[in-house]
Amino acid sequence: MRSIKRQRSCPSCGRPVGIKHMLLKCATSVWECPGCGAQLEFDPGRRVAVAGYGTIFGLPPMIFGGMFHWWWGAVLGLAIYAFFMSYDSVRLKRPKD
Fold this sequence. Notes:
The protein has one domain (4-92). 49% of the residues lie in helices and 10% in strands. By secondary structure, it is mainly alpha-helical. A hairpin with a 6-residue loop joins β1 and β2 (39-42).
């Protein structure tokens, strides 16, 4: 298993993928690595699992925390979601068969 830092870097040259790509790109986005020009994409299976777990564990604190002190629920829910999103990974784009 690769480390979290390696999961978020180009498999060809090792250049880290910026936070802009990790947060703002959707699961079907394809972009070029600025270091080597390789076509990169998110690992779709892992992206769905990470988003699912982040939602399952992050949404209840937002909802139930909102009943009493909304800001604590929002902060805790976003922290849980960000924790799970740190396990997202990038791979080389595979050609369609």
